[in-house]
Design goal:
By secondary structure, this protein is of the alpha+beta class. The chain has a domain of 42 residues.
């Protein structure tokens, strides 16, 4: 049985996405950053939202790191 990874959206800012990936790795969470790079921005901004792939059992912990590191903007 194949377990499908969980996608955690991290937005268009690729530097922010890399910080979140590093924070998850530092916490011991196996994570993969899917970077949807835009070729005209020098890889600073994504063409489409980037996301983290994590195991289902790590999704809650990874989402907590994302929310804690970059809390959601209440005006969005």
């Amino acid at each position: 049985m194949t377990v499908e990874p969980v996608r955690i959206p991290v937005g268009y800012d690729l530097i922010r996405a890399q910080v979140l990936e590093a924070a998850c790795l530092d916490a011991g969470i196996e994570v993969r950053l899917i970077r949807n790079e835009h070729p005209e921005t020098g890889s600073l901004i994504a063409l489409q939202p980037s996301y983290l792939l994590v195991r289902p059992e790590d999704a809650e912990a990874a989402q907590a790191i994302v929310d804690e590191t970059y809390p959601p903007d209440p005006t969005d």
